[in-house]
C-alpha cells in the first residue's frame, strides 16, 4: 500500500517598499508544514494549494527572493490572495 505523501508548505512575504520580489518566509514538510498552515489560518492569511509551485519554491532557501521564472505564477497567487482579501472585507 502506498504511503500518503507528506504535506508541504511554503509561506511567501512581500514588502513593496523593501523587496524587489516576493521572498520565501518559511517552508517545511510534515509537522512544520502543518504549523505554517495553522499559523496562516489563525491570522486569516489566504492559503493557495499548488503542489507544483510548492515543490519549486521548497527548493529555495528561507529569505530568498523568488527567481524571475516564477514571477508569473506567483503573481497569480498574489492576485488570488488580493481577490480573497477583498471579498472578506465586504
From TrEMBL:
<dbReference type="GO" id="GO:0009306">
    <property type="term" value="P:protein secretion"/>
</dbReference>
<dbReference type="InterPro" id="IPR004683">
    <property type="entry name" value="T3SS_FlhB-rel"/>
</dbReference>
<dbReference type="GO" id="GO:0005886">
    <property type="term" value="C:plasma membrane"/>
</dbReference>
<dbReference type="Pfam" id="PF01312">
    <property type="entry name" value="Bac_export_2"/>
</dbReference>
<dbReference type="InterPro" id="IPR006135">
    <property type="entry name" value="T3SS_substrate_exporter"/>
</dbReference>
<dbReference type="InterPro" id="IPR029025">
    <property type="entry name" value="T3SS_substrate_exporter_C"/>
</dbReference>
<keyword id="KW-0282">Flagellum</keyword>
<protein>
    <submittedName>
        <fullName>FlhB-like flagellar biosynthesis protein</fullName>
    </submittedName>
</protein>
<keyword id="KW-0969">Cilium</keyword>
<keyword id="KW-0966">Cell projection</keyword>
